[in-house]
Amino acid sequence: MAIDNPPSSSSTRPAAVPAAGADAGLRGQAAVTPADADAASRPALSRRRQLETWRRASKVLPGGTNSNFRAWGEQTVYVDRGKGGRIWDADGNEFVDLRMGYGPVILGHADPRVDDAVNERMRRGVSFSLTSEDEVRVAELIAEMTFCEMARMTVSGTEATMHAIRVARGFTRRDKIVKFEGQYHGVHDYALISVLPNDVSALGDRDNPVRLAWGRGIPQAITQTVIPAPYNDLATLRRVFEREGDDIAAVLIEPVLGNAQGILPGEGFLQGVRDITREFGALLIFDEVKTGFRFAPGGAAEYFGVTPDLATYAKAMGNGYPAAAFGGRRDVMSVLPDHVSHGGTYAGNRVAAAAAVATLTILRETDALETIRRTGERMQQGLGEVISRRGLPHVFTGHPAMFGVMFAERMPNDYRGWAQTDHELYDAVAAGMIRRGAMPEPDSREPWFVCEAHAADDSVDRVVATFAAALDEALEARAG
Ligand SMILES: Cc1ncc(COP(=O)(O)O)c(C=O)c1O
Q: Which of 126, 136, 315, 341 could form a disulfide with 350 if both were Cys (CB 3.0 to 4.6 A apart)?
């Protein structure tokens, strides 16, 4: 079976992961390379216990972890606990957490408001494959906060995008899906096309991109139903629709390029996508797995003022518990239950539903999102001063609640543009920050996530101070 790109170290390595040694499929790399760790002048973390665990784990867990994206070779982190905006690894090292579990922990780790609600429900039994009132309340909250008129719960963002795609196909009775290069929508086959190669030339010609399958195991027949297009480029999207519009069920788009530090849509881009999908009778699906309930109560749809037909939600809706959903227009969602398959033993499970009711209620009824936005802005201000003092060009991407910093003169337009930024400098800074006790993802493509609890202590100051020291170290290393 031919796939568009034979797996190679660049094509199969998930985003956010500096290469861990020579191994290709690992998402994360060592934040701290062995060479770095040897540098006596630099702070070094104690890693004895984690290294032992990694050796033990690697015998029974591929890569020593349950996700490619966490497999950072010898630098794989084994976590002990988290509280608020901090985490502690198994060797007792403390970090200001800027990953927040890749986004879901929007209030803070071990938030008692959510945990108490979950614990109370758990004591009544967790699995019935029957429907609880909490599930009804989750759908009501989604309807009250977003454009969705109806929603169904799933367990993960992957399932949410998979089901939204199927609903769109079932509603339109068309097969093809347009997605954008550099966008990550989870790990089902239809989502793993033209995601995040390290070498952007693997995406092919910009005007006629290849369908780049991420790794082996994705049937070619499936790649033929997914059309990749460059983000922020309405002319190319229009050409795709003029060529294949009669077969296109939906455009699936993350409103910002969340896996390229949140590169923003250009003026009129999202509205243009909305208009083109309407013109050709296709649906518009916003993947709000990262942006939902974070950019605004109504997610990126509210923030950018563009309303899709369907949307997917996950991370922020459960403060870290495995809650997710897809939803949208009543007429579209009404292909369920009679015409399109959706189910799942754990869909709407007790724990997820209780967590979602508690989290969404807090996000709706308190000023948590405002606190998070202000905290992110404070962080950006501090970082901006540090970088400007050193005379380096930089841009902030995304939203203050989920932002990236790129060493570049201007914000790139699309995923290919990320490769033009000085991401090697960013990677070196991220590694230095981790050694000093603040943990962003050690890869320049993953944004930083701010939680409500970061406002409650000195997290902002610590992040800015570790960033400044790590930047100086990286610049010194580069100079000499
Ligand atoms: C935009 C987007 N969609 C979908 C997913 C997949 O979600 P999950 O990891 O819960 O399957 C992710 C995960 O990072 C994501 O960022």
A: 126
Strands 283-288 and 208-209: unpaired
Q: Is 11 a member of any domain?
A: no
CA of 185 to the centre of ligand 1 (A): 5
Over range 468-472, report the average pLDDT.
98
86-89 and 79-83 as β-strands: parallel, antiparallel, unpaired?
antiparallel
Residues 320 and 385 reside in one and the same domain: no
Quote the CA–CA distance of 303 and 292 in Å, as a whole number: 10
User: In this structure, which residue's CA is closest to atom 3 in ligand 1?
Assistant: 185
Query: Is residue 151 located within the same domain as residue 87?
Result: no
Could you give the CA distance from residue 435 to residue 34 in angstroms, rounded to a whole number?
12
Q: Which residues does a 6 A CB cutoff place in the pocket of ligand 1?
A: 102, 156-158, 161, 184-186, 254, 258, 287, 289-290, 314
C-alpha to C-alpha distances, 338 to 62, 89, 111, 167, 332, nearest whole angstrom: 40, 48, 39, 11, 12
- Determine the distance separating the centroid of ligand 1 and the alpha carbon of 149, expressed in angstroms: 22
Main-chain dihedrals φ then ψ at residue 397, nearest 5 degrees = -110, 165
287 catalytically annotated: yes
User: Residue 42 — very low, low, confident or very high, per pLDDT cuts 50/70/90?
Assistant: low
Domain that holds residue 459: 19-109+368-479
Among candidate residues 117, 142, 187, 185, the one with its CA nearest the CA of residue 352: 117
In the reported structure, the alpha carbon of residue 157 is separated from the centroid of ligand 1 by a whole-number distance in angstroms of: 5
Chain-centre distance for alpha carbon 407: 21
- Residue identified by tokens 């003029």 is 242
Q: Which of 315, 321, 415, 426 is catalytic?
A: 315
CA triple 379-382-383, angle to 5 deg: 85
Whether the Cβ atoms of residue 219 and residue 1 lie closer than 8 Å to each other: yes
Residue whose CA is at the smallest distance from ligand 1 atom 4:
185
- Whether residues 118 and 198 share a domain: the answer is yes
Residue 74 has pLDDT above 70, yes or no: yes
Print the SS3 string covering 273-301.
HHHHHHHCCCEEEEEECCCCCCCCCCHHH
Residues 281 and 182 in one domain: yes
